[in-house]
Amino acid sequence: MIIDILLYIAAGAGVGLAIGLTGVGGxxxxxxxxxxxxxxxxxxxxxxxLYASITKAGGVAVHHKQKSIEWRTVKMLAxxxxxxxxxxxxxxxxVFTDSSDYEAILTRSLGVMLVLTAxxxxxxxxxxxxxxxxxxxxxxxxxxxxxxxxxxLGIFVTLSSVGAGAFCAAVLMVLYPRMPALHIVGTDIAxxxxxxxxxxxxxxxxxxxxxxMLLACLLVGSLPxxxxxxxxxxxxxxxxxxxxxxxxxxxxxxxxxxx
Length: 259
What we know:
Layout: H1 2-22, H2 26-36, H3 41-65, H4 71-95, H5 103-122, H6 124-130, H7 139-160, H8 166-175, H9 181-207, H10 212-232, H11 238-258
Helix pairs in contact: 1-2, 1-10, 2-3, 3-9, 3-10, 4-7, 4-9, 5-7, 5-11, 7-8, 8-9
């Protein structure tokens, strides 16, 4: 038991360090890692969702102080994602009687979202170059797209715990090319916290998919490691690390989606 606890703390520290160094990690690294440790897909996903909401909450406070959150965009995303997340959790609880019955859905969803996330990270530079400044009249159309993106994220983040970070940031980058990079990050985090919290609570109350001992161990390891990684990031080329992580995620995503 003690060895297991130390292993989970170390896992939290490793993922926390990756998040601090590159801004990438969270669900895309933690969920596959927990599955590798032998946790069932449903428990890995449910626990990771609450882990993500807690680890990112501090970032919201920092960005709010810096005034780097576009709250209107957060609201439009949440209007789609939060109800979609709740409905997804309720649907799983009502349609299936046992977690093994919907394991295939979780597996395929995890694979798809890992591939999408990896692709977004690898194509990040090209997305910035391809983004075309939009006219002010396009704002209403963007609101509709953002709302629909929120619905997509609400469903698939609940099913996989992946996508609330890099994928959402890429959409914001394309739709709002004039938005400063810091505001994209702040807006992305501000939306990710309520989404992952609601999705995690859905897994907890309707599906029973949260392991609190595991959650505590992950947080003990990751919270200090994130701060350490953030400091080290000034001296380490994060782009190289992002590429390595994205390549690894791509391989895992194909495995989960196909096999």
